[in-house]
Amino acid sequence: MSHVALITGGMGGLGEAICIKMAALGYKVVTTYSPSNTSAQEWLTKMHHLGYGFIGVPCDVTDYDACKACVAQVEKDVGPVDVLVNNAGITRDITFKKMTKSDWDSVLHTNLDSVFNMTKQVMDGMTARKWGRVINVSSVNGQKGAFGQTNYSAAKAGMHGFTKALALEVAKHGVTVNTISPGYIGTKMVTAIPNEILESKILPQIPVARLGKPEEIAGLVAYLASDEAAFLTGANISINGGQHMY
Ligand code: NDP
């Protein structure tokens, strides 16, 4: 029986590549999407035409009860969740001086509370079955900070502490918990940055001299989800074209 992989935000730039990679490896792939996402059905239909039988479940990852209901539905309709990829995230970039409480809360709730909300629903099952993988998608900006991102950098850095603490608690039960920290990847989150800033400020920071590809992130996620990665836990893996070596 194939493993079930649940990917939050699987319809986004990185998420789609992760869904495709996991499907290619034989996982049953379930993705969450925001209840407000009006193009979700269109995306699922497009993917079905391409041969991917992804299952989409609406779930606001900031809402604990919605996450509980989402995982209960997945377990009933598809099976127990073996791999959880906490990938959903947002930015609300603005300097600290101008940042509102709402800018702070929305980023912390979506990027960090979501990790608790989703992981809480799957962990007892994973430890009982003695196998599980939790992969948290952080960011280079959670490692080194970024101008205009006190909210995002704090949320993404919080994932690292969560990962290490939980990895300690569940290691002996066959469950690994890891974080990956991508640098700049060519998804809409990054291509929304004005071109002149991309070319003058961002690309010069990247020794590989290009943006990363979503498929490169998906390959790392797939490795962390594999049996071969059973001895790798509590880690944060940088994947950033050499931008930040830490
Ligand atoms: P996208 O904006 O393309 O995708 C983000 C996804 O998050 C969307 O699918 C969105 O779902 C989902 N999402 C946002 N809010 C909610 C919510 N409240 N409930 C459920 N789902 C939600 O971004 P990327 O693919 O670029 O980013 C994916 C992850 O990678 C993020 O965590 C991001 O911080 C991180 N990252 C990205 C980098 C990059 O260069 N792109 C670099 C480093 C880290 P929906 O569309 O249905 O609203």
From TrEMBL:
Q: Which UniProt keywords apply?
A: Oxidoreductase
Task: Report the Gene3D superfamilies cross-referenced here.
Answer: NAD(P)-binding Rossmann-like Domain (3.40.50.720)
Indicate the segments forming the Ketoreductase domain, all copies: 3-183
Assigned EC number: 1.1.1.36
The superkingdom of the source organism is: Bacteria
Pfam families assigned: adh_short (PF00106)
Q: Which GO terms describe its molecular function?
A: acetoacetyl-CoA reductase activity
Top enzyme class: oxidoreductase
What PANTHER family does the database record attribute to this sequence? 3-OXOACYL-(ACYL-CARRIER-PROTEIN) REDUCTASE, 3-OXOACYL-[ACYL-CARRIER-PROTEIN] REDUCTASE FABG
Q: Which family does it belong to?
A: Belongs to the short-chain dehydrogenases/reductases (SDR) family.
- The protein's name: Acetoacetyl-CoA reductase
Which gene produces this protein?
phbB
